[in-house]
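Re: [ENG-882] Designed sequences occasionally contain unexpected residues at chain ends

Forwarding the minimal case from QA. Structure tokens:
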């Protein structure tokens, strides 16, 4: 990553690559989701519906139990294609519901891109959330969710509707690796460049440990902030300081020691609801995003910048500048002034001599649900003085801009910066969401 210096320097673009709509379990029509993000000033957006790419021109949804959504949608987008639906005799209208249910046709990716894309202003990026399941002996079920972007098609495994595996069939790292391989093969066949990321890795329906990620050099991105991964893990996570930041540092300590590329962290909303229902403000838009410094607003430029690590994950706070000088190993960050707000920067490192033996292992047993019978999992806790340690803290003054830097020590494997606004109200209150506004830089190594 180089510091931009010329007048034609790359610029920052704000985006979210994890959003759901009525194409899967999101609660908005795609035009609504896109227009809200675009009106908010986002430059790029991925509608990452579960196991589907939005290319079927004959996909309809029914207004039954969605009267409110239909009403608001048709008011804002009166040109929407709607038809009457036959109501099954077994389903009489509920109170307040129209006696004649309607159906609305879902707009395709191509139609949506043609309608909303604008050069240098807004880009819809084709995105899919591969939503997969691994079943263990004894009934445990773990989901693995992975987004791939910039490929307007389904992976063969998703097109075949082959969603499940058993742990006897395949180890989790091999399962993820198979998806990366399919993504790369599909990208080659389409002549495109894809971005692949592991979503919400310590969501409790998962079995992704940092060690899994440390075995996958081809995995470059994960969600460091997923709008809280708010599924009811508050009782169980974070535990013993294990949270998404710790996950990241453990993964990167192992990866750096093995000479693997460092894992980069993405911010995303995982938007499912847009009007506050039913998650009390969680999984709403505009809570976590990715800020990318790219040459232009096109998918190849955005992905190339992200592969260079020239981006930040953001929750209510954006860096002004991030620069890493590989020769000296110096990471510099700055953040603009905000009236009354005092920011601080933590520079976080892992040390070359960290121990690969956990200091302890803890068992977590989140409350059971009928459809998730046994969620027990174990979390390995590593020495936090050698992995993910705060090497330097720089405190800014209220209302003033802040610039801070840190130079790698000989025994540091990498450094990353976490810019915080202490005392600020985070944009969502989920267990794994930060407790104040944060911007995360990527980790950088001297290599
Ligand atoms: Zn997911
Ligand atoms: Zn999702």
């Amino acid at each position: 990553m180089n510091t931009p210096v010329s007048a034609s320097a790359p610029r920052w673009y704000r985006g979210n690559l994890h959003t759901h709509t009525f194409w899967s379990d999101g609660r908005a029509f795609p035009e609504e989701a896109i227009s809200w993000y675009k009106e908010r000033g986002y430059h790029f957006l991925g509608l990452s519906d579960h196991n589907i790419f939005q290319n079927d021109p004959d996909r309809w949804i029914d207004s039954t139990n969605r009267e409110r959504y239909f009403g608001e949608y048709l008011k804002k987008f009166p040109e929407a294609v709607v038809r009457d639906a036959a109501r099954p005799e077994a389903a009489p209208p509920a109170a307040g519901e129209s006696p004649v249910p309607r159906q609305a046709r879902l707009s395709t990716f191509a139609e949506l891109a043609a309608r909303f894309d604008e050069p240098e202003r807004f880009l819809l990026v084709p995105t899919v959330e591969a939503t997969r399941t691994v079943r263990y002996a004894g009934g445990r079920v773990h989901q693995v969710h992975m987004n791939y972007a910039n490929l307007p098609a389904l992976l063969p495994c998703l097109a075949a509707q082959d969603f499940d595996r058993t742990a006897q069939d395949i180890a989790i790292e091999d399962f993820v690796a198979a998806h990366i391989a399919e993504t790369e093969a599909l990208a080659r066949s389409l002549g495109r460049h894809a971005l692949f990321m592991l979503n919400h890795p310590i969501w409790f329906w998962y079995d992704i440990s940092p060690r899994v990620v440390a075995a996958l050099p081809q995995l470059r991105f994960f969600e460091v902030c997923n709008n809280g991964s708010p599924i009811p893990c508050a009782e169980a996570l974070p535990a013993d300081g294990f949270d998404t930041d710790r996950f990241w540092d453990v993964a990167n300590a192992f990866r750096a020691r093995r000479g693997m590329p460092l894992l980069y962290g993405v911010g995303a909303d995982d938007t499912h609801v847009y009007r506050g229902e039913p998650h009390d403000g969680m999984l709403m838009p505009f809570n976590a995003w990715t800020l990318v410094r790219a040459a232009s607003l096109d998918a190849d430029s955005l992905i190339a910048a992200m592969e260079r690590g020239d981006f930040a994950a953001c929750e209510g706070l954006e860096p002004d500048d991030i620069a890493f000088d590989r020769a000296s190993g110096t990471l510099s960050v700055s953040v603009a002034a905000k009236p009354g707000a005092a920011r601080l920067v933590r520079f976080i490192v892992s040390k070359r001599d960290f121990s690969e033996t956990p200091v302890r292992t803890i068992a977590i047993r989140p409350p059971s649900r009928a459809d998730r019978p046994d969620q027990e999992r174990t979390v390995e806790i590593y020495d936090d003085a050698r992995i993910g340690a705060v090497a330097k803290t720089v405190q800014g003054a209220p209302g003033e801009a802040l610039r801070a830097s840190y130079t790698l020590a000989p025994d540091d494997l990498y450094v990353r910066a976490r810019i915080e606004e202490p005392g600020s109200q985070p944009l969502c209150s989920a267990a794994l969401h930060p407790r104040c506004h944060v911007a995360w830089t990527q980790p950088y190594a001297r290599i």
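QA comment: On inspection the terminal residues look reasonable. Confidence is low (pLDDT under 50) at residues 2-7. Proposing we downgrade this to a documentation issue.
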